[in-house]
Amino acid sequence: MKAAVYRRYGPPDVLQIEDVEEPVPKDNEVLVRIVATTVCAADWRLRKADPFFIRFMNGLWRPKKIPTLGMEFAGKVESVGKAVTHFAIGDEVFGATGFKFGAYAEYVCVPEGRTLAIKPDNITHEEAAAVWFGGISALHFLRKAKIQAGQKVLIYGASGSVGTFAVQLAKHFGAQVTGVCSAANLDLVKSLGADEVIDYTRDDFSKAGRIYDIVLDTVGKSGFRRSMKSLKRGGFYVLVAGSLWSSWFGGMWAAATGAGKVVSGIASGGPEAQTFLKGLIEVGKLRTVIDRCYPLEQIAEAHRYVEAGHKKGNVIVNIPRR
Fold this sequence. Notes:
Blueprint: E1 2-6, E2 15-19, E3 29-38, H1 41-48, H2 54-58, E4 72-80, E5 92-96, E6 107-111, E7 116-118, H3 125-129, H4 131-144, E8 152-156, H5 161-172, E9 176-181, H6 186-191, E10 196-199, E11 212-217, H7 224-229, E12 231-239, H8 244-257, E13 260-263, H9 271-282, E14 290-295, H10 299-307, E15 314-318
Parallel strand pairs: 8-9, 8-11, 9-10, 11-12, 12-13, 14-15
Antiparallel strand pairs: 1-2, 3-4, 3-6, 3-15, 4-5, 5-7
Helix pairs in contact: 4-5
């Protein structure tokens, strides 16, 4: 089968299309023919070994454990292991490989359990492929911040893959949402339900005098001091992406002074979270924002575009069927 493989760390051009062995499902696994996958932050960071500690997990000098990237996908069930009971050949599914990656390929094997579900009928494979990383991350961190109806929530990076889902989910939970993004994305974020949108290139959200119950930073650029200045005492400063100083040392200071609570770490989600998001999608209350689609043969270009940091929502990679 065809797969995008990288044999060394570096720029997008290290990704090359190669013929690799097609996986065979174990007894509890499902073999999925992938129709669409995405380029998310974890993909390009692993490709670059950025931050450096990635090398200690995936090979110091070159990638050894994970030669094929891709965390999330949508596709069709090609075959199933003999112990699989919830899926059948031909089912349209969506899910994630998690930190095993491997979705930049024509086929992938995934366990029947935690990260695979039947695709909603009212969305495309491209839309379904992007739900796991952005949707699960947004849901995880909003729940960690104990979001409640009536709260004021600021979402920094509201037009990205996590941000677009976070705006919609925060509104679903009854919050008053302010999105921060560039001027080019103001209309998009408003269309997702944001009550107010701030253009970060013109206005500093921390100088407006508004106070928020939750400040959720999806891109690590809100600034610790600015965010704490705008945070209600005892509120939640959520770092989906951010520096060690902000998440660790800043978190200790905030806890010691009672200024607030800093939430960071790695998002997690299982069947309950996926079912929750699927339900919202099926009733039209949650949608995927897609910026661009690339064929697998242009995976390097897709990575280059995403890494530049200006995408709206999600970038999709289509896996053509031979």
